[in-house]
Amino acid sequence: MNLTQEDWISQFEADENAVILDVRTEDETNDGIIANAILIDIHKGQGFIDEIEALDKSKNYYVYCRSGMRSAKACEIMNERGFKNTYNLLGGIIEWDGEVVAP
Predict the structure, then answer these.
(1) Does the annotation count 65 as an active-site position?
(2) In this structure, what DSSP letter does residue 50 have?
(3) What share of the chain is helix, strand, coil (3-state, %, to 5)?
(4) Parallel, antiparallel, or unpaired: how do β-strands 38-39 and 60-64 relate?
(5) Active-site residue, from 34, 37, 42, 65
(6) Residues 55-70: pLDDT tens digits?
(7) Residues 61, 19: contact at Cβ < 8 Å?
(8) Which among 28, 37, 46, 84 could disulfide-bond with 22, CB atoms 3.0 to 4.6 Å apart, if both were Cys?
(9) CA-CA distance, 8 to 73, in Å (whole number)?
(10) What is the reported pLDDT for 77?
């Protein structure tokens, strides 16, 4: 499900079962991440699949990348693998108004 930044933040903040997932490359994350995000690079191919398979499928995942395209794909892949609740941040981190921290 695609969410605007406002909806993504408000839903995340009200969600006690939430996990933030950053699917950008390591080089991209060096510029900063959203606080408490788990980093799993979608460009790792099978490595990405292996790492998401190790995640708790009962959690709700708030996923982002640079522009929202890779995170939309990551949500699709996760949903195909049994994740029930994945939320894509429309516009990605380039349109993010919130705080960014060092990885």
Answers:
(1) yes
(2) H
(3) 40, 20, 40
(4) unpaired
(5) 65
(6) 999 999 999 999 999 9
(7) yes
(8) 37
(9) 17
(10) 97
